[in-house]
Every structure is written in structure tokens, then in C-alpha cells.
UniProtKB/TrEMBL annotation:
Protein family according to the UniProt entry: Belongs to the HAD-like hydrolase superfamily. SerB family.
UniProt cross-references to InterPro entries, sorted A to Z: HAD-like_SerB, HAD-like_sf, HAD_hydro_PyrdxlP_Pase-like, HAD_sf
Protein name: MtnX-like HAD-IB family phosphatase
The keyword Hydrolase appears for this protein: yes
Species name: Clostridium tanneri
EC number, UniProt record: 3.1.3.-
Keywords: Hydrolase
Length: 207
């Protein structure tokens, strides 16, 4: 059977949550209150993201330069080498934004990655686009569950790797789950079978 690894970006491929760090560091006052509305599920990711990025007055070049300071998680390069050697598919699935995700991945010259994320374009202000949002759910900007389901419909055995809120629905539909942080806690609470990991070296030992 074909195998695909679907990998979250912020806090999974990167050591820190880049998107949150951008908002926390660069947004003007009011971003915390907007974030709390999201935590309380009163608004979805798309509305939360647009409102918070409206408070960022820096352009795309500034954001890309800012993103270059973030480090890749330990073992990710070795993980890519191993799974590509076996001919497996690797998909980066993020509820973050291409303006910093592409910058970080391009800097490391990672190849053969399919990237599914939201878009952020600067033109005297930020315009965010959410092209893979579930119309019925509306909580996440990028529905990772639908991506996992598409891969399974294409006869892939899907391995999901993640750490946070936007990974919860997707992991339920995967064939195997590697989880840390908030996703690990969710899997434990919901009794979802999973493998715990801290770095990609842990995942390499499993596979």
C-alpha cells in the first residue's frame, strides 16, 4: 500500500509556533482579546486570523525576515531523507500562512513536499485567504481532515504528525498518529491510539 505522512508545521516541523510568535511579537494591542474569542469558539480561525493580522503593520518582506530566525525541529531533515528514500509521500498541512512557511522551508531547501496552508498577501494591509475551509464546520481555516480523507480515498495509508488544535479532526481519520503537546493530551482524553514523540528522531525509531 502507498504511504503518506501528513505533517503539521507550526510547533511540529518548527520548534516554535511561528504564526503565534508573529502575532504575539508584531501585532498591535487587541490581539489577545481576539485570540480569546477563538479559544472560546465564538469565532473561527479565518475570522480570528484576519482580525489579528489586521493589527500587523509590517509588510511581507519584514515577515519573511522575521521567520528566518526560527529553527526546524530536531530530526526533521533525517526524517525526510528516510521517508523519501522509501518513496513515501510527505504533505505539509498547516493552518498557518504561506508567507512564512514557504520562507522557512525554502531556506532549508527541502524538496518533494506538497504544502497545504492558508495564504497571506500584503498590499497596504494583510489579506488572508482560506481555500480549504470546511463550510459546515468553519472552525479551522485549512481543513486537514479533508486532506487525510482525500489521501485515503486515493489508497494511501496515512500517518499523521501534529501537536495542536487544528490537528484533532484529522488525526481521528488517520491510520496512525504521532502526537505531542496539545494533540497528545487530546488523544489521551479521547482514548485515540497514538505514538508520543518529542522530536522526529522519535518518529524515525517507530517507522
Amino acid at each position: 500500500m502507498k504511504k503518506a505522512f501528513v505533517v503539521d508545521f507550526d510547533g511540529t516541523i518548527t520548534k516554535e509556533d511561528v504564526g503565534f510568535s508573529i502575532v504575539r511579537t508584531l501585532a498591535e494591542k487587541g490581539w489577545k482579546e481576539i485570540g480569546q474569542l477563538w479559544l472560546d469558539k465564538k469565532i473561527g480561525t479565518a475570522e480570528c486570523g484576519q482580525k489579528q493580522w489586521n493589527l500587523i503593520k509590517h509588510d511581507d518582506e519584514y515577515i519573511r525576515n522575521f521567520a528566518r530566525n526560527f529553527q526546524i525541529s530536531s530530526g526533521f531533515e533525517e526524517f525526510l531523507e528516510a521517508v523519501h528514500k522509501e518513496g513515501y509521500k510527505v504533505v505539509v498541512a498547516s493552518d498557518g500562512y504561506d508567507v512564512y512557511i514557504n520562507e522557512i522551508l525554502d531556506k532549508k531547501e527541502f524538496e518533494d513536499l506538497d504544502i497545504y496552508c492558508n495564504k497571506a498577501v500584503y498590499n497596504n494591509g494583510w489579506k488572508l485567504s482560506f481555500l480549504n475551509k470546511d463550510r459546515e464546520c468553519n472552525l479551522c481555516g485549512n481543513c486537514k481532515k479533508s486532506l487525510v480523507e482525500e489521501l485515503k480515498n486515493d489508497d494511501y495509508e496515512v500517518y499523521y504528525i501534529g501537536d495542536g488544535y487544528s490537528d484533532r479532526c484529522a488525526c481521528i481519520h488517520a491510520d496512525a498518529v504521532f502526537a505531542k503537546s496539545l494533540l497528545k493530551e487530546y488523544c489521551e482524553e479521547q482514548k485515540i491510539p497514538h505514538y508520543k514523540f518529542d522530536t522526529f528522531f522519535d518518529i524515525l525509531r517507530y517507522i
